[in-house]
Amino acid sequence: xxxxxxxxxxxxxxxxxxxxxxxxxxxxxxxxxxxxxxxxxxxxxxxxxxxxxxxxxxxxxxxxxxxxxxxx
Length: 72
Description:
Layout: H1 21-36, H2 41-53, H3 57-66
Helix pairs in contact: 1-2, 1-3
C-alpha cells in the first residue's frame, strides 16, 4: 500500500530582498559605496558615516512599508 501525504502551503512570502527592509537599505548603501569608488578598508569606513547621515526617518519608514509591514 502507498502512503498518503498532505502538503501545507504557507501564505507567507519567502524571505527575499523585496520583503526585507534591511536588504533594501544595504542595496542602496552598496550603490553609494561603489559610486564613491573607495577601495581600501579605511576609506570605506570613512565614507560610510557621511552616507548614513543622509538617511532620513521617512526613508527608513518607506523601506518597512515597501516590505509589507504596517504603519503604527
